[in-house]
Design a protein that fits this description.
Strand order of the largest sheet: 4-10-9-6-7
Largest sheet: 5 strands, mixed
Oligomer: single chain
Structural class: mainly beta
Radius of gyration: 37 Å
Number of helices: 1
Number of strands: 71
Helix content: under 10%
Distance between the termini: 57 Å
Low-confidence stretches: 257-266, 276-293
């Protein structure tokens, strides 16, 4: 009624006026007629257009439903006026505070970054062209915590693994199952929707059916022909970062049935190049003509109808997903230019924000500003938190419990608001890669921190809390599904008893503080066959500090006895310790009289039984009798006669470095009491590697390597001795008298080890298999006759101190704690993922 003309027709005698497209108001219709004689007439009619307001109904979530912290809000909008177009205002409220507001024309909205165990309200208001509106609201609550964590880790032999673990009973993390990638691609990112894991590595997208958490299975692998760096699932599309090329959108309509849906499944819908930035990390902006991104797409997060991209050396980008899959370059906006390695969406300062890294600093913007931004955000919209607080590049940012966390390679810092922050962790040598926060209740906030060197660490309220973690295992014994280890762990540096009856949930049962213990031996206590008592007899030692202790471990009660120290006051230093089935301790050490083996009772006192080692051992090389090597004691092995009911000890064997080994026979009575050493049965067994050639002029020693005998193992009935011969001579397989069992001829002109050039620093035996620990080179598994079954190359990423096994699994004590492997189907060795493997990405669902 303001007099303006909003519609006009000057040709037709009969017209339809589209009044339904007009906003609600009072209108005047002027009908003007003029004939050929210039007679004219005007007729006016007043019309009141009544607009019917739209209606809106939220269909997901239901009223008072418990939802994940990440879900899609869905609604139906209806307008009875057919030419009306609706738009929606979406608001998320926590209490009386509106923490997010956004506008959209779609009927779906990704809500992400919510807190666990919190009450929220979603409000959707529908508007038509006349600004008529109606509102629907729904109250909902987020779940208390994620049921599972999904972690990308890697075995030390280079296989990518996805662990699926239960997080219900934190700080205990129970491994439910794991997927081992069979090819050489290193998995780098993942997303989880319902029962499917979508992960990328190399040039491929992998789809894994995880409906059975204990046995996730690969159902599809798609090669996209370019390096992939990140992935996020939106509706039934995978949005995949292509490193420095841009984005690919892949249709995943039916991942559970890829054969039936093969024509649709994996189809590349759109490949999109990200617009060129003018950013330079050196501070100078130049107009670049390069038509690819200047850094890789390292992280993708969803909110509302947008995807937000962190692009290293480039910036923070927003991708409008309303028209997916038909996205174009016009759907991309550069919100911020900088060196953005990571981003997260969540609550901080009681509002929704996008937090992101920018080289050595941390910044954030209000999510509402980002959602509604038509172009690059003004600098006034960006809050900078971390000037001069980090000395290295910020690797990641996380939002949790209204706090903001950021981490570099070795530091974690927390902000509670714009001006107050504190350092949570600073660990020299750390390589932090990702974090997951789980709020258990109002007082307990857990954090799972991943490290590409040290594995998984848990925190409680910003302090380390990992009662099931062993950091280093310098020596181990594996007996009846329990691992006895000396090393460094969360509780102490000392003795640990690890229960691996369920290898997916290894549990530290007992521990006792020691002082940098580095040696251990364990035997089952000898008891009558009618006695069901099962007790492990344990001896541990710190060889440098001359400390040794004795323990009992009861398999029924899981009790560890109080330590009994050995009286080693007469020793100058000790090399190794061992124990027999009656609990007597054997100490290899040095006294004023020379290098000795001395036997101690279980009360810690000497039995007065000892033997002195020779100073040198002749190498017994034919035609070269003058070669002698000095005895350098390394390790000790007690041979038990398992046929006798008392399981009495029969022999003591000592490895002597370059000199070889020496074997002694014990004298015992029928009850197994030790009477002494048999002075007439000292057998010196040299293990040099030599080659002799014969010519007219005599014999020439062409090759001689005395080796460095470090460790010994014997089979159950003492038919064979297995010797780990240091860094160059591999291993030796001998009979009990020292005769090499692997020689191929009898000319005595050659003596060769089982293999040459590969380290053999420790050795064990089980059944018909030999397990050789090669330090940073990993592990070799051989048959009892010396043929190679398989090996695991650690590539120097950790150090294998000692390996033991049964027919089911292999246990390795390493510089990263305890590693477990499934060896049921040799030569296949399947890593059973533990907390100690290198880890890279984590997701809670």
């Amino acid at each position: 009624m303001d007099g303006s003309i909003i519609w006009k027709n000057e040709k037709d005698l009969q017209v339809k006026i589209p009044i339904k497209s007009f906003p609600r108001d009072n209108y005047i219709i002027d009908i003007y007629v003029k004939d050929i004689y210039d007679a004219e007439r005007t007729v006016q009619k007043m019309v009141n257009i009544i607009n019917r307001p739209p209606t809106v109904q939220i269909v997901q979530p239901f009223q008072n439903e418990v939802v994940p912290t990440y879900f899609i809000l869905r609604w139906n909008g209806i307008d009875n006026d057919p030419n009306d177009r609706l738009k929606y205002k979406v608001s998320i409220l926590k209490g009386s505070n509106t923490i997010l507001t956004s506008e959209t024309t779609t009927t779906e909205f990704v809500v992400s970054g919510l807190e666990y165990n919190a009450q929220y309200k979603a409000s959707v208001t529908a508007y038509d062209l006349s600004n008529a509106s109606s509102t629907a609201e729904v109250n909902f609550k987020t779940n208390s915590k994620p049921r599972y964590s999904y972690v990308i880790s890697k075995s030390f032999d280079g296989k990518s693994i996805i662990n699926i673990s239960s997080t219900i009973n934190l700080p205990t993390i129970k491994l439910e199952g794991f997927f081992v990638n069979s090819d050489d691609s290193e998995l780098v990112d993942l997303d989880v929707v319902e029962d499917y894991i979508y992960t990328v590595g190399g040039t491929s997208l992998y789809v894994i059916d995880a409906s059975d958490k204990s046995q996730p299975k690969l159902i599809k692998k798609i090669d996209l022909g370019t390096t992939l760096t990140s992935i996020k699932i939106y509706k039934h599309y995978a949005i995949i970062g292509e490193g420095t090329r841009g984005l690919t959108v892949v249709d995943l309509k039916d991942p559970a049935n890829p054969i039936v849906a093969s024509k649709e499944f994996g189809k590349i819908i759109k490949r999109l190049q990200v617009p060129v930035s003018t950013y330079s990390k050196f501070g100078t902006k130049t107009n670049s003509k390069v038509d690819i991104t200047q850094g890789k797409i390292s992280s993708i997060k969803l909110s509302g109808t947008n995807a937000y991209l962190a692009v290293s050396n480039y910036g923070l980008l927003k991708l409008n997903l309303v028209n997916i899959p038909n996205i174009t370059i016009n759907d991309v906006i550069i919100l911020y230019q900088g060196q953005v390695n990571d981003l997260d969406i969540g609550q901080f300062n009681s509002k929704f924000v996008i937090a992101f890294s920018d080289y050595k600093s941390v910044k954030y913007v209000n999510l509402s500003d980002a959602e509604n931004a038509p172009n690059e955000l003004p600098s006034s919209s960006v809050t900078n938190l971390a000037n001069n607080l980090f000395d290295t590049e910020v690797k990641g940012v996380k939002l949790s419990n209204n706090n903001l966390y950021a981490f570099t390679i070795d530091r974690i810092r927390k902000w509670i608001n714009d001006s107050i922050s504190s350092e949570v962790a600073f660990e020299l040598g750390a390589k932090f890669t990702d974090m997951l926060f789980i709020k258990e209740d109002d007082s307990n906030n857990h954090a799972i921190v991943l490290d590409s060197g040290k594995g998984l660490t848990t925190y409680l309220n910003d302090s380390k809390n990992e009662p099931n973690k062993l950091y280093k295992a310098f020596d181990i014994k594996y007996l009846n599904n329990f691992v006895f280890a000396v090393g460094d762990g969360f509780h102490c540096n000392g003795l640990y008893v690890l229960d691996v009856r369920d290898p997916l949930e290894p549990t530290i049962r007992r521990w006792d503080t020691g002082q940098f213990l580095n040696k251990i031996d364990v035997k089952m206590k000898a008891v009558p066959k009618s006695n069901s008592t099962r007790v492990a007899k344990i001896v541990v030692a710190n060889t440098e500090s001359k400390i040794a202790k004795l323990y009992d471990f009861d398999y029924t009660t899981l009790n560890l006895s109080t330590a009994t120290p050995l009286n080693l006051s007469e020793f100058n230093y000790i090399y190794d310790v061992a124990i027999d089935a009656q609990g007597r301790a054997y100490v290899l050490g040095n006294k004023s009289s020379g290098n000795v083996v001395e036997i101690f009772s279980y009360d810690g006192n000497s039995l007065g039984v000892s033997v002195t080692l020779p100073a040198t051992i002749s190498q017994n090389i034919p035609y070269f009798s003058s070669i002698e090597e000095n005895v350098e004691p390394k390790s000790l092995q007690v041979v038990v006669d398992y046929i006798s009911e008392s399981q009495k000890p029969s022999h003591v064997i000592v490895s002597c470095g370059q000199a070889g080994i020496v074997r002694y026979t014990l004298l015992t009575d029928n009850a197994g009491n030790i009477l002494g050493f048999n002075d007439n049965d000292e057998r010196k067994i040299p293990t040099p590697y030599y080659i002799i050639t014969e010519s007219q002029n005599g014999y020439t020693l062409k090759k001689y390597n005395p080796g460095n005998d470090l460790a010994i193992a014997v089979d159950k009935y003492f038919d064979r001795i297995f010797v780990a011969d240091g860094d160059f001579n591999g291993i030796w397989i001998l009979d009990r008298n020292g005769v090499t069992l692997t020689e191929k001829d009898d000319d005595n002109l050659t003596k060769t080890p089982v293999f040459e050039g590969a380290p053999a620093r420790n050795i064990s035996w089980y059944g018909e298999k030999i397990f050789v620990s090669g330090g940073g080179f990993g592990i070799k598994i051989l048959s009892s006759s010396g043929e190679k079954i398989t090996d695991i190359d650690f590539k120097g990423l950790t150090y294998a101190f000692h390996t033991e096994a049964d027919n089911r699994q292999m246990v390795v004590g390493t510089d990263n704690g305890i590693l477990l492997y499934d060896i049921n189907n040799l030569p296949e060795v399947k890593p059973i993922s533990t907390l100690n493997l290198p880890m890279y990405k984590i997701l809670g669902r």
